[in-house]
Design goal:
The protein is an alpha+beta fold. The strands form 2 sheets. Strands 2-5-1-6 form a 4-stranded antiparallel sheet.
Length: 119
């Protein structure tokens, strides 16, 4: 089964936020990089991509046949999707175990594990 692991950054310090990132020790920063590298090298993982901040987003809806375009998704920072990856695993337990290794899960964020529908 394939699972999409959606990484919700929450309050997780990232290199794109230099002030928060600088509050981590060098060992913590190195650990984050090492953890992500190990995850992407895990058999069955298809690395995804990190997303830019929510304020760079554009939301598109169609209302009464008209395309309506607005800036941003207007979500709280803790709810914002920061990136994703795909993991082909034997079962949900394996996907949960991988999700627990993602630094954001232990540093203020959350990982949503969702099976990919295969028709």
């Amino acid at each position: 089964m394939k699972y999409m692991l959606l990484i919700h950054q929450g309050d997780t310090p990232t290199p794109r936020d230099p002030e928060a990132w600088a509050k981590l020790s060098e060992a913590e920063r190195d650990g984050v990089f090492a953890d992500y590298r190990a995850i992407t090298e895990t058999p069955g993982v298809t690395p995804g991509l990190q997303l830019q901040d929510p304020d760079t987003a554009t939301t598109v809806r169609v209302e009464d046949g008209e395309t309506v375009v607005t800036d941003g998704p207007f979500v709280e920072t803790k709810e914002a999707l920061g990136g994703y990856l795909v993991f082909e695993a034997d079962d949900l337990d394996a996907a949960i175990a991988l999700a627990a290794r993602i630094p954001a899960a232990r540093m203020g964020g959350a990982i949503e594990v969702r099976p990919i529908a295969e028709w």
